[in-house]
Structure to design on (1261 residues):
């Protein structure tokens, strides 16, 4: 007996013909849906991204193979998805082999699926088919448990003004369709084996076991008939699924590969410049045609997994922003205006009438201004969506039309006028140095190895410039050769850019670079993670390439080189807050930790730490906007999190001037004074060097 | 040309404003230095009965006309120009006020007289007149020597005591025929009273007043909290009202309200002349400002140079 | 409707003001100039009127260092025309009024709107002076302007929140205290763009006869803190002293 199976088993020829006709129609549907998508993306503006195609392809393939982005911080969903993904891939490959064998090779008198190969094939498909079903059942159980990230309730709209029914139905169809395809597949295998019981089919363990079930249920006597019916059920399900792919969330199987492949590794860290050509019709995005094809792809890539919704500090604070809803609204709008492809979701959505402005009407200004640009959404997104870039581009349009709150407007005017957000005299920028016992070099006049970029808050804020003095004192003690720019320094522009005031940002960059150019230094260090980000990642776009360190990195290096010595062991138990712009944006999570370890400090991390740190709420210009209407400020939420570590943790350590201000306030406003003290890492260093 | 000093009396809703008496007080001193008389100019409709209140003046020139019933920038400045043209006084004093601002410059152009505004003090000796202006938000004093024949000064409210202007006396009353006020371009429509319903800051004993230093309306809750602990109300300077952070009913100063609380705690208010005129009569003024040179410290009895965001919570915490 | 908005730069009070060696003027080199905030409000109110009912807004300023920037900014905000008056440096209010009257008379004008005052108006406020040189009515300390055919309805503020409403035949001059909304923000890119595209007209001032009518004898800084007894110490200590003071005075 040859180990193989019959393909159109007990099929009349007519049925076989009908099958092929239906199959071709299905493929037609699929291609048409795909074509609609292609047309949609083709309308988008250029996004570049065609560099290093092979690297991009392989990188995305590695992510897909490991499902690493899905596993991240959600092992259950990651594992279930991995099972489904590989189950699907292997079953798909299996189907392709069958098709090749029967439709092509057969005519050349070749047959692959026989003998040992057939047994291996059968065994592999059975195992992966089982994986597939287990994964789907896990996902079903997960949905049934109603995890908060899968709750489609919106923060910004009353229930009667929107409907997520389309999405909810789509979710169910997708899951059940896959499940039924898998289950019927096994069913027909079982019944086929039961009919003839070829002994080699023990290599199809699931099918063999189901054949036993069939025997017990008494189906085997009528096996051949049942097989044909069920075969058709299975086939119809499969064909429906294929046709359904481009019009539903199933599309993510194809699109998300592309989205990961074309992802910008620097997304959010380095915002796009506005081209001269784009500038003519405004610097911001205000119509769907303003978006790039990659951004349009982003909108379709969303699987509504809700991870961004879950991590977003603005959403947590009870504001109207949810990165998920923002992306989905843009998707729906893109579909309606240029895509016309997502039937399922469209028909159920309460569509706003053709909005005049995308920024302000479709996506409300409150939604856009709620973003703290903490980048948690971009970091957590398993499919490479760059929410933040779209948000800033939309903000640019709001800024252009003056659609912002008075305090922000006032702050931007101050930055434009005085180069600092405090609206204080430029000449007073270095007034904080006046009480020092030594003079800090002016790198505009004297050469120094390091330029210390101090930043606005550390220069002007009375609560924070005391910390600047401590930094100066510590560096003086170490004997580091450094200087500052005195009144020559201006706001670095990081948050101005994230507010969307691109022109002002460029002005600040030009001014700072001009001063850098006239000064004599080799490297830059900064106490401000925000300045660190823009100088490191964005100034290069303007020709400013500088070697820059955050002071925690600098201090650690000096410690390792033996220049910084800790003479006092600090027996503190502390927790540490990773600043968004240091940890998440720039991956620097080790230096502060190692530094604290070197001082003998016991660090207990909060549940949300390192790249998953929770924003203080000040970034992206939020510190210049009203936060009095939030349910709970992100900073207060964070203090609550720190308090869960227990009463032993006395200090809440920060490494960012804005954090010092935000959390200092939050401890007070949340009524936790005395329980937790906010300290900058420099205060610890000062203590430890004795 | 006489050596007389003319004071343009300001009144609204049948009541003289303090500025009138402040100018009469100062004017009396100036008239005696210049060797002239102090004359009050009273303009309105059926206002003669009010003339007796201007007792510090030796004469009240009264101009009455139905067109002068309500203050009109056009009718009133025309009238003052006519009076000045007819009498040619040495010095005309107007308030640097909403009314006086319409009159001073108009009379200056009509009668080719020198004009100085933002005036906090005027001195005269040997026929020469010197005026001190508080310019640049009260940060700089500029002393001007007046030249020419007749002068006009726009007096900042609150720059001299009103009591001197209430000195007893029996001024003679002289009628002056109103100039031709037909064909006016400006028609008075109505007076709109401020909306009620809010706290009346003019009757409060304790006011915690905030200025630009508060930086943002979201910082107001800590001020409210302090005011509540002190048992007082919150008031503010003009920029906060312009930014719509606080209502007009809370504004202290020139275009706002005049307050006389027992305690006026000025937080982050620099003390522009327009603000000072609204609060200088408070019983105890304590000012907190980060700028040691802020003019507010000239008027406060006690001053704290510091960050209001440190002082406010410290105060609240201790109450 | 044609709205003319005279605007000017004044020393920025955020910066320390220094007096020069003559003792008769401010040290010009230490000054940072910025648009007078009242003029900013006047421009805003004019632009609101333009948006409401359509108007041509012309911003006009005297030539001085960096004045181009405030004019281009006005254009970026929405002013249709910008004019620089040359040949008159640092004019007094009287000189400015006479020169502006010459320029404005030569062009169509229904409403002239300018700031109610400026921090350096030593010889009176421009609005009223200008109205008299132009021979048109004026209302100052205005917080709202509505145009109704050939008339304007303006709200003039007195103290204590009391407001008088007037109906005025156009043309007129308005001294603006505050616009109905905070002056708008104009993005830097838009200003830069405007600098490339807008035309800045120049008009020369001639035969200015007006004088200030006074000469400056002395410029000085008021004795600072003269009245106040300063409370020293940390914030906590200062707070304690204040509370003690209130107790001593029987206030708390």
């Amino acid at each position: 007996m040859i180990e193989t199976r019959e393909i159109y088993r007990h099929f009349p020829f007519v049925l076989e013909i009908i099958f092929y006709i239906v199959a071709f129609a299905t493929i037609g549907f699929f291609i048409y849906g795909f074509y609609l998508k292609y047309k949609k993306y083709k309308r988008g503006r250029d996004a570049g991204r065609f560099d290093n195609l092979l690297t991009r392809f392989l990188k995305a393939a590695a992510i897909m193979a490991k499902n690493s982005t899905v596993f991240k911080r959600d092992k259950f969903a990651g594992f279930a998805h991995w099972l489904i993904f590989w189950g699907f891939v292997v079953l798909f490959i299996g189907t392709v082999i069958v098709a090749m064998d029967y439709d092509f090779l057969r005519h050349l008198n070749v047959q692959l699926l026989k003998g040992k190969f057939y047994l291996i094939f059968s065994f592999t498909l059975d195992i992966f088919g089982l994986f597939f079903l287990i994964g789907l059942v896990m996902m079903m159980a997960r949905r049934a448990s109603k995890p908060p990230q899968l709750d489609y309730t919106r923060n910004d709209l009353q229930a009667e003004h929107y409907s997520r029914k389309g999405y909810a139905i789509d979710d169910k169809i997708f899951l059940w369709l896959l499940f039924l395809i898998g289950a019927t597949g096994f069913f027909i295998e079982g019944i086929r084996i039961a009919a003839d019981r070829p002994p080699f089919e023990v290599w199809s363990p699931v099918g063999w076991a189901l054949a036993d079930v069939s025997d017990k249920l008494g189906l085997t006597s009528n096996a051949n008939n049942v097989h044909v019916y069920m075969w058709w059920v299975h086939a119809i399900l499969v064909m429906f699924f294929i046709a359904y792919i481009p019009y539903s969330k199933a599309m993510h199987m194809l699109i998300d590969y592309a989205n990961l492949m074309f992802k910008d590794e620097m997304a959010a860290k380095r915002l796009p410049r506005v081209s001269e050509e784009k500038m003519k019709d405004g610097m911001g995005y205000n119509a769907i045609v303003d978006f790039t094809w990659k951004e349009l792809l982003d909108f379709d890539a969303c699987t509504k997994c809700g991870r961004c919704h879950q991590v977003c500090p603005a959403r947590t604070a009870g504001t109207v922003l949810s990165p998920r809803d923002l992306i989905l609204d843009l998707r729906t709008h893109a579909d309606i205006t240029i895509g016309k492809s997502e039937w399922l979701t469209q028909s159920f959505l309460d569509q706003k009438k053709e909005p005049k402005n995308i920024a302000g009407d479709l996506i409300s200004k409150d939604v856009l201004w709620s973003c703290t640009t903490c980048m948690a959404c971009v970091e957590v997104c398993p499919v490479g969506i760059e929410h933040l870039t779209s948000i800033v581009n939309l903000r640019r349009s709001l800024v252009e039309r003056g659609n912002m709150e008075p305090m922000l407007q006032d702050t931007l005017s101050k930055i434009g006028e005085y180069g600092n957000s405090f609206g204080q005299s430029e000449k007073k920028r270095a007034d904080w140095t006046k009480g020092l016992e030594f003079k800090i070099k002016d790198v505009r006049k004297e050469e120094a190895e390091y330029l210390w970029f101090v930043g606005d808050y550390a220069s002007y804020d009375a609560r924070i410039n005391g910390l600047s003095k401590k930094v100066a004192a510590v560096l003086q003690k170490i004997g580091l050769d450094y200087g500052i720019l005195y009144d020559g320094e201006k706001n670095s522009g990081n948050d101005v850019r994230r507010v969307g005031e691109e022109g002002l940002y460029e002005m600040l960059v030009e001014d700072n670079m001009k001063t850098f150019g006239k000064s004599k230094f080799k490297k830059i260090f900064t106490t401000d993670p925000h300045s660190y980000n823009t100088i490191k990642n964005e100034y290069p776009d303007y020709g400013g390439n500088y070697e820059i360190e955050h002071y925690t990195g600098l201090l650690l290096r000096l410690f390792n080189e033996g220049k910084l010595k800790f003479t006092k062991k600090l027996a503190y138990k502390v927790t540490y807050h990773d600043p968004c712009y240091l940890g998440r944006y720039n991956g620097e999570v080790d230096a502060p930790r190692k530094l604290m370890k070197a001082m003998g400090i016991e660090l207990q991390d909060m549940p949300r730490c390192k790249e998953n740190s929770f924003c203080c709420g000040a970034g992206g210009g939020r510190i210049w906007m009203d936060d009095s209407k939030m349910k709970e400020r992100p900073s207060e939420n964070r203090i609550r999190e720190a308090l869960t570590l227990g009463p032993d943790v006395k200090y809440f350590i920060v490494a960012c001037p804005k954090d010092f201000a935000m959390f200092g306030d939050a401890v007070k406003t949340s009524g936790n004074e005395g329980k937790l003290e906010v300290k900058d890492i420099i205060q610890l260093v000062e203590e430890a060097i004795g | 040309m006489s050596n007389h000093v003319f004071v343009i009396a300001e009144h609204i809703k049948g009541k003289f404003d303090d500025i009138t008496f402040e100018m009469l007080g100062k004017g009396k001193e100036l008239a005696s230095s210049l060797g002239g008389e102090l004359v009050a100019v009273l303009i309105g409709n059926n206002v003669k009965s009010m003339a007796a209140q201007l007792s510090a003046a030796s004469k009240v020139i009264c101009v009455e006309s139905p067109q002068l019933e309500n203050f009109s920038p056009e009718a009133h400045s025309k009238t003052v120009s006519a009076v000045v043209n007819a009498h040619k006084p040495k010095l005309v004093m107007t308030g640097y006020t909403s009314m006086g601002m319409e009159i001073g410059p108009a009379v200056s152009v009509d009668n080719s007289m020198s004009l100085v505004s933002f005036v906090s003090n005027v001195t005269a000796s040997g026929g020469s007149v010197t005026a001190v202006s508080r310019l640049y938000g009260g940060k700089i004093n500029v002393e001007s020597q007046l030249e020419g024949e007749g002068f006009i000064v726009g007096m900042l409210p609150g720059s001299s005591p009103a009591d001197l202007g209430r000195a007893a006396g029996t001024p003679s009353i002289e009628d002056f025929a109103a100039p031709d006020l037909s064909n006016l371009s400006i028609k008075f429509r109505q007076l709109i009273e401020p909306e009620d319903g809010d706290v009346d800051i003019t009757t409060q004993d304790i006011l915690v007043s905030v200025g630009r230093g508060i930086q943002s309306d979201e910082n107001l809750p800590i001020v409210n909290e302090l005011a509540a602990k002190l048992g007082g109300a919150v008031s503010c300077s003009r920029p906060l009202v312009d930014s719509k952070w606080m209502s007009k009913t809370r504004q202290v100063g020139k275009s706002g309200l005049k307050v006389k609380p027992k305690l006026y705690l000025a937080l982050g208010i620099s003390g522009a002349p327009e603000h000072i005129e609204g609060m200088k009569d408070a019983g105890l003024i304590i000012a907190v400002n980060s700028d040691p040179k802020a003019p507010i410290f000239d008027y406060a009895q006690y001053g704290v140079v510091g960050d209001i965001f440190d002082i406010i919570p410290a105060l609240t915490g201790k109450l | 409707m044609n709205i003319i908005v005279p605007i000017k730069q004044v020393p920025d009070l955020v910066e320390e003001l220094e007096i020069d060696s003559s003792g008769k003027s401010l040290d010009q080199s230490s000054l940072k100039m910025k648009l007078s905030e009242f003029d900013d409000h006047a421009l805003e109110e004019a632009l609101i009127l333009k948006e409401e009912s359509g108007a041509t807004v012309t911003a006009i300023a005297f030539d001085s260092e960096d004045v181009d920037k405030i004019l281009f900014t006005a254009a970026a905000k929405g002013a249709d025309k910008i004019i620089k008056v040359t040949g008159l440096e640092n004019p007094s209010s009287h000189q400015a009024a006479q020169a502006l009257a010459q320029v404005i008379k030569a062009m169509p004008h229904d409403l002239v709107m300018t700031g109610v005052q400026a921090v350096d108006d030593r010889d009176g406020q421009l609005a009223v002076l200008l109205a008299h040189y132009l021979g048109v009515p004026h209302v100052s300390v205005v917080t709202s302007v509505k145009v109704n055919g050939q008339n304007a309805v303006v709200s003039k503020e007195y103290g204590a929140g009391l407001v008088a409403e007037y109906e005025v035949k156009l043309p007129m001059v308005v001294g603006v205290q505050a616009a109905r909304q905070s002056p708008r923000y104009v993005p830097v890119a838009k200003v830069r763009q405007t600098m490339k595209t807008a035309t800045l007209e120049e008009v020369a001032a001639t035969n200015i006869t007006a004088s200030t009518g006074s000469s400056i004898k002395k410029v000085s800084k008021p004795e600072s803190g003269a009245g106040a007894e300063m409370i020293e110490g940390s914030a906590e200590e200062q707070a304690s002293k204040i509370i003690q003071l209130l107790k001593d005075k029987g206030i708390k």
